[in-house]
Structure formats: structure tokens, C-alpha cells
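Aim 2, interim progress. The first record below pairs a target sequence with its C-alpha cells.
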Amino acid sequence: MKKVQLFTVLAAMTACAQQACAVDLKAGDWTVNVGGIVNAYYTAVSCSGDAVGGLALAGKALGCGGEDHRTTIGNGLLPSGLVTSVASTQGGYDVTAKIGIYAATATDSAIAQNSTVDVRQAFFTFGRADLGTVKLGRDYGIFGANAILGDMTLVGAGAPVQATQRGRVTLGHIGAGYSYLGTYGQIVYSAPKNASGIGFDVGVMSPVSDTPVIAGPRYATRSSPQVQARLSVEHDGFKAWLGAKSQRFESQAAGVDDLTMHGFEAGASCQLGAAGLLVNAQTGRALGILSDADQGDVRSKNFLVQGTFKTSDALKLGLSWGRSANDDNTAGTGGLKSNANLTAGAYYALNSAITLVAEIGQTRSKGFGGATARMNGGSVGGIVFF
């Protein structure tokens, strides 16, 4: 048995990833590691206010799944999944590979098969300590990764949007604090960190089409790939980063111009004893709410701030607030000006594998025309990493 970091949803990669015991098997020069995640949360929400339009997360249509009140027992921000990885040293290079297969818990049927799986990760890496690492395959993106992985609600639910929790997951602060980091076919180079803790990652991603949830697609991919990059520094519990991404989209509608998505972000986190702080800001064009360019050609800003405090080795309390706002009232926004979410949470480590979670929060959506919607919600449940 050994301690491993599960790279998930977001997914994926850093200080917020949970440590868990997984099974290691030796097969010749290879070490095979099998682990995973299972979680479930009882969420209850109530929605009030106006019909804002667009991807209004607090609105009745999305927040409460078309009802005034709604209850679901399903996944939180993370899906449940089985993750298998292998590692070896071959010809002087460290080689790893990982496949993560994920599934949702809640559906609207008691008899239908819940057999849809989400293969978010299927990649391999090779590298050396002095040369850095190359990754090839399908994995989470670079842009926005530190925000979602540092989000305390990663092991909880955050905004318990009912329209996404049934058949998928809740949203944490996705669309109300940061853009989703996405999953892409990719080739990424990660440089080794220098003595000062400075490193960088740069990757080309398979270009994606826009994926609007409430309308038909308006843009298709071009031949040029999406490009993402990040510069980061880490030292003694402090971490800071700068990130960027860009992709060209081709319009599918007559009279509509092509679109170049571009985004920039800056953030920092620090851990001072029992206290933790995280701030992250993103700005750009066509960043989207739930996916790249899902609101079309609109400038937007995302902001997340979070504070946590460990009252004991087992219990962590936290408060996080995030807001995503559109600068322009373009057709793609559907009239949505902003989504914001405030979540207060308690996270109790029952043991090294299980964390029990209780959260309460409020999500607000505002329209350019003055309409407002509000979703009050709470969640209680737990997650196991194995």
C-alpha cells in the first residue's frame, strides 16, 4: 500500500487532491496502481425570483431542474470513478500512464441502466528530472486547473445545480467563480522546477467546438489547435501562477464573424499553519460558463476568493465566494449578466480515506435587464478515496 494523489476533475493535480491508499502491484519493471473515488451527497435546493435567461445557474430551469424545490442524492463536484495507473523507468526515462473511468450516481429513473461512462483521462508521460515531462493523451486542461483543484468544494458539492447533478455532477464554482478547465486530447510539456520553485507548462490541445447547453452550436473548430500555458512558482506553502489559453473558432451562421477565444488568469494560494487562502481571477473572450465559447463572442471575468481554517487535525471549516460576469449583452448570453455563489462548508476527515461534508450556500444570477434569481441550497454526504 502507498499514498497516491488522485488527479481528478477538475480533477486533477495539486494541493487540493486527496491522499488515499491504493493497491500497488508489481509486474516486471512496472508498478500497477489501482485506486478510485466514490461519493454521494444529499442536496436540497429552492429557487425564487425572475427568469433571467441564458445559463443562469440560480434560475428555476437549471438550479432547480425546472421545479421550485428539488432534491437529489448524487455526485458532488467529483464523479465516482476507477483510476488505474502504471509507472516504470525505461531506458533512463520515467514512464507513467493513467486511465480514469468515471460515472454518475443519480438519474431520473429507478430502472434504467446507469451505464454511461466518462473517460476523462487516458494518457501517458515520459521524462527525466533534468529534462522535464511530456504528456500525450486525453486529460484535464492547464488553464483553470489551480482554481478548481484549490476549491474546497472539490470534495463537496458547491453550487448544487440540479440540472447537472442528475446524470453528472454539481458545479462547485464552475460558472460562478471560474471557467471549467475542460478535458482535451493534448500534448503538454512540463519543465522541471528550478531552485527557486519556478516552473512552466505549455500544451497544444485538440480544438473543440462550442457546446452551448441551451442552444444549438454556433461555432466549429479550425485546423489550428488550442494552446494553453501556465507559469508558476511554489515556496514554503505559497504558490502563485499565471495562465493563458487561445483557440480560433469558425462561425457556422451566415453573417456571424469567426471568433478567437483568449483567456488570461492569475492566482495565488498560501497555507499558514491551520489557515489557508486562495484567490484566482480570469478574464478574456469566449471563456464560457460550462464550456469553451458556450456563450459565443462575449468578454467576461471570473473571480474566486476562499478562506479555510483547520480547527483540528480532522475538521476543516471554509468559506468561498465566486462570481462570473459578462461584460457585454450579446446574443449568446441570453441576457445573463452574472452568476455568483457563496458556500460555507465543514469537512471532517473520519479517517485517512473518508471525508464527511456539510455545506450550505446561495447562488445568485442577474440579467442585464435587471432580473434576478436566487437558489438556496445545502448538501450533506461524503467521499472516499481508495
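The second target in this work package is listed in the same format:
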Amino acid sequence: MSIKKEEIKKIAHLARIKVSQEELDQVEKKLDGIMTLIEKMQEVNTESIEPMSHALDIDQPLREDKVTEKDIRDKSLSLAPHADKDLFIVPQVIE
């Protein structure tokens, strides 16, 4: 499958990319190479291949879920410009 220059111009217009006449031949060659590679990859038989989430068979090490900081609510509320009981008071942003 090859991409014609008219299609490249249309795609460039839709993407709001300026492609000069000099660049058009280079873009056509590059896109032609990409499409050829895609066609080759589609020819590969992947029926017996199980889908995977990552190319490497590794596990993500997870840390233990534990509290590492003490409760700083009172300290945070004391720094707020306006607070009422346990709430931060902020200006209205929606009318």
C-alpha cells in the first residue's frame, strides 16, 4: 500500500502541518517505508502468541502499604488563609 502525494497534502492540511513541495518527496518515501514495514509485520503469524502487557517478563516490586507520615491536618489548616473546623474555605469559582 502506498500513499499518494495528494493524500499526503490532504493529511498535512488536516493536521495543520505545512509540507513544501521539496519535502513532499521525502515524506512520501518515509511514509512508503513505514507502510511497507506495517505490511511485513501483518504477515507474521501470531495465532499461538499470548498477548502480554510488557515486553519483558518482570514483576513490579511493590512496597508495603503503611502510614509513614503523622496526621498533619491541624498544621495544614493553620496555614490556610481561611478555615472553619476541619474544612478549607476557598473562594467560589462557579457562578
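The mean pLDDT is 89. This observation will shape the mutagenesis plan for the next reporting period.
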